[in-house]
Design brief:
Four copies of one chain form a homotetramer. By secondary structure, chain A is of the alpha/beta class. Chain A folds into two domains: 7-75, Alpha-Beta Plaits; 92-346, TIM Barrel. Chain A is 35% helix and 21% strand. Chain A has helices at residues 2-5, 20-32, 54-58, 116-128, 153-166, 180-186, 200-207, 223-235, 261-270, 279-283, 286-299, 328-341; strands at residues 8-14, 36-41, 46-51, 68-73, 92-94, 97-99, 103-109, 133-135, 170-173, 189-192, 213-216, 241-245, 275-277, 303-309, 323-324, 345-346. In chain A, the strands form three sheets. In chain A, strands 7, 8, 9, 10, 11, 12, 13, 14, 15 and 16 form a ten-stranded parallel sheet that branches. Chain A has a four-stranded antiparallel sheet with strand order 2-3-1-4, covered by helices on one side. A two-stranded antiparallel ribbon of chain A has the order 5-6. In chain A, 59% of the residues are buried. Chains in contact: A-B, A-C, A-D, B-C, B-D, C-D. At the A-D interface, helix 9, helix 11 and helix 12 of A face helix 8, helix 10 and helix 11 of D.
Chain lengths: 347, 347, 347, 347
């Protein structure tokens, strides 16, 4: 129980020539002292994160152990997701699709599953155009109780069918801790929406599952709060987390949200997790989605997640910002060109 | 099911001389047409809110019915909580304590239930000083997974004991839809915290309970979003809602949050629900709690909710902003003086 | 030149029993060492602010001088306006009217001088109702170049006439450093508007005049930036500054600006200068001006500045927020009652 | 005088086959009626902006004149800078350097002119690396009166020397309306800083000069306010305006400002003026300048303005965000690659 609330307090960096045995030895000493150890083997160095009471750890002569190069305290409030802990960027792989490091994710699909044909038609179009995953909401959190809230469990069936037909992994949102089982049967990546970024119960739930989590930044959450939310997930054991910037609330009203692309650059410094961008919600209008998507690729994002629809003018939700399915190919090529210039391939 | 998603579309204002029979007649006609009707009898007029498909309603010759003075569409996105629907302000009564209209609520207690004596000692002090309800957190949503998260179910036991000893109704937060039953056994008023203001599942849950709800404004929620969140609760049938302003996130950093007292004045215009203010979280420091509490009373709030602790310097959570229990009496007197000037008595 | 850029680095607090001679002795030693000294004699203690190079000051054995109780560094970036430097609150007196400490200022008048009768009529009404100063804009900074920009120099004549008739001191804005002379001929208090809060040239100009300055907080300026702007004025020699909170820009749109009353409480801690509140611009609507004015008095402000007009519906500028001149008396009484409860009399 | 406050109310779009004579005829009719006319000949159509009283204009049978295709009202509050008025994007040319349409401006130089060698060394380095203009502050508006405020007129001399040596046009800020003459002797482009974006007197001054103006968005100004500020300049006759996004103030603190790149995309829709981005101030740290500069190019900006210094660690102002002069070449190449992908050449 005690270790449950503990965070990694120390990083033990093994020297370039350290042997696996030496690493094992450090881990064993830590465990004898009641601490936990997480070993990350990077391209250039092996790093051990030591988790436990700070004073216990301080009493161990860690710097004197064979192979140890340096011992560093972790000063940031986030630990497991901190870049310091993982020398290499994390790559999330789902059914052969990859996001992170050299791989740029192109997640597309309808805002909401409205009916079978709308979703399948969109899925085919984005699959043909090179999308790497299919997004689609089954449950929609809406500001007004009088607007369409999503098809719920029926939508999950449609998404399963879309995956079968296109092979695209499914990204869909989990809203209710009581729906974990049903959502997991279909979702390949479980989304935590912006409004739930600090729903700590939901974060803990997805921290215990065996699928990647797409965690959207809340519209008024700081970068640090986003990283702490990811830490809630990681602390429960699930470190396969994709962060997503989707715009923040400011005084400016010419767009729906202010897309905070600077935060993407900061996140790339602060964490080893991949970071993608949702340009659709901030744009609010189709014509602005492409420039924002390009800017996302240029600032260093590891992918984008966008909305598409066969006939946006009929969409039940956020029609004006959805890309017509038959224009998605041209859109995807523009984004891929920019990703290529940044040294990334569509994952 | 259809009417479940419908919102009141029309207000039917009965003339000053309308008889109860005439009102019944209008209600009966509405029901025959498949619409729902909510009757509010105010001091000066009786108002019927008609809920149903707009075109069905439009086909009824409502203005011609005997006793009907005017028929008005509801233009605001919120309906049940709109001031238009209820000619008189709502008063929430709990075990003889009242909030709203002429009654000023003085809700006080520890940020978190830390241990039995801390809570009981605080409860006694605030009860003696004239507090009208006791607040105390059992479950604490915290930004970091490595900080104290509340005692959980054990805390509820302590709160029950505090109520037995002091007679004060208990205000405590519901975080998890799976905890409804346990929390309801102890809570007299169920709090929905700022971070959950748009957790629509939780709002629906408390919309179906038979106890008042204290709904805190999210730190980046607009006034309209707060009213829409209240509408989620009301739509399920529970209209005993207390709104709470607790500070919004802005660029200013000299206080933890910018207490938006102007929004209290706006809310008093827009809704019939009582509105209270939490000055503690915005202040972040004890010395600022009193001036902000006074300003809340002066701007027209129906009460305040503040944090107190027997020994703030030992508090596990938000110590610097908690009022020492033995200074609470002086604090309460200052606030009561201001409430009196505003024509309100401590409820 | 060096001392021109220097800020007070040390506070020398003389003991309760220190004699004037002892104070003089410390000042003389500071001056010999090339430092400047500002002496503030408060109710309880005399404080000397020493201005000069930090290392020179450090070399003086100040703590050993007779009568010296303590020597403290000033850590805040603002110095002359810091509360630390002046043990007692500053009271600004203009033609017998006072703002600060126990005196509550009631500054009222039209947003803009539109024509002679509108201004005189308003001036008479607010004078009769107990206003302590008359406000009125001659030059109006407007977002659009196509809207009314004020009558300019002609307006100053009208204001002079209003003062002659009512005896109220005139508060009017200086926009252009080239207008200093003309504006000073009429203004008794020179206003620096919110948009010019960081117009450092203008601040320096009013720092060299011999009249009080009313400095409005910019709508996105932090409390610290406001204090630094005041420091620009004080540094040039004019320490008769009244600060004014008038609302900040946030995501919330139900009012025009979010009135940041918490910042008033912070300012009262941080500075010895008086702080007033302009509720009109934040409210944007007449009905909200009174609750915000009350809240300002309750949070500890030293006064308010509000807009009034004989016929608001005809106003060329900000009509909806102006109080009808014939309702100003009732308004003023409500505010005066609250100020009285706070221990203040209308100045 | 009346027309001085008028804004273009109508756009008269001449048909594809309209002759110059037909255009002249419309202009003559407008002038006879007391209205002004501005003719813009674009690639695809000729557009006449008619300026005058709306009712006078309405009385003219404009749609019946030969060659007229359509007559449209201008609904936006900004008129002269609106995209509607100018069918083609504006290109600003200064001594052979161009910004706008297909030309990407690369403006670089020190934050402030500190001394001769620092500025000349930086100027040489950025000129060699392909910068198209040299920036450098002579007068620095600073939050604190106790920090370095720039060398003033002496700095202008150094900038003149830098231009002579490198041939780069000079971009420098005008702070004080009383300095217009001196600044114009050296500046090729006159900058209005972010803090002065709503200093309407300064805007009017530069509206009457014969050199391009670089207008920076205020940190809390909306896109519409920026366009209205540009309208102030244009209304006086100077339509050679470059807009500059440099970051807005929000709750987020991981960067100094939130660079609002979405607003660049909006501005490109709303105005014919070129829009550049200053990534240095938002970044606050060197490592973030390149990703933000790339994102600016990708979102469609017409250029960037960045800070460089021979030895940033010694800079008197904003050292951490300045690019070392000897790294500027690599930086410029990365940005040029992105601009090229967007179809733009370095101007």
């Amino acid at each position: 129980m005690a270790s449950n609330n503990a965070s990694p307090e120390l990083l033990i960096v093994m020297g370039a020539g350290a042997t696996p045995d030496q690493t094992e030895h450090v881990v064993a000493r830590l465990q004898e002292a009641g601490a936990d150890a997480r070993v990350s083997r990077g391209r250039e160095a092996t790093v051990i994160g030591a988790i436990g009471a700070r004073d216990t750890l301080a009493s161990l002569p860690l710097e004197g152990y064979p192979g140890v190069d340096r011992v560093l305290p972790i000063l940031k409030p986030y630990k497991l997701v901190a870049r310091e802990l993982a020398p290499d960027p994390t790559v999330i792989e789902v059914h052969g699709r990859r996001i992170g490091d050299g791989y740029f994710g192109l997640v597309a699909g309808p805002c909401t599953v409205e009916y079978r044909e709308q979703t399948l038609e969109t899925a085919r179009a984005v699959a043909d155009a090179g999308a790497t995953m299919l997004r689609g909401g089954a449950f929609k959190p809406r500001t007004s109780p009088y607007t369409f809230q999503g098809l719920g469990l029926d939508a999950l069936e449609v998404l399963r069918e879309a995956r079968e037909e296109t092979g695209l992994p499914i990204v869909t949102e989990l809203l209710d801790p009581r729906h974990v089982e049903e959502v997991l049967e279909v979702a390949d990546v479980v989304q935590i929406g912006a409004r739930n970024m600090q729903n700590f119960l939901l974060l803990a739930e997805v921290g215990r599952i065996d699928k990647p989590v797409l965690l959207k930044r809340g519209p008024s959450a700081s970068v640090e709060e986003l990283l702490m939310a990811a830490e809630y997930v990681a602390k429960e054991g699930n470190e396969r987390i994709i962060l997503c910037e989707r715009g923040i609330k400011t005084f400016e009203r010419s767009l729906r949200y202010t897309l905070d692309l600077g935060s993407v650059a900061v996140l790339k410094e602060e964490t080893h997790l991949p970071v993608i961008v949702d340009p659709s919600h901030a744009a609010g209008r189709r014509a602005l989605v492409l420039p924002l998507a390009r800017a996302a690729a240029a600032v260093g994002a590891d992918g984008i997640i966008v909305e598409a629809h066969p006939r946006p003018e009929e969409a039940l939700c956020d029609g004006p910002q959805q890309i017509p399915a038959d224009e998605f190919g041209a859109f995807a090529r523009e984004v891929a060109d920019l990703a290529a210039l940044m040294g990334k391939q569509i994952g």
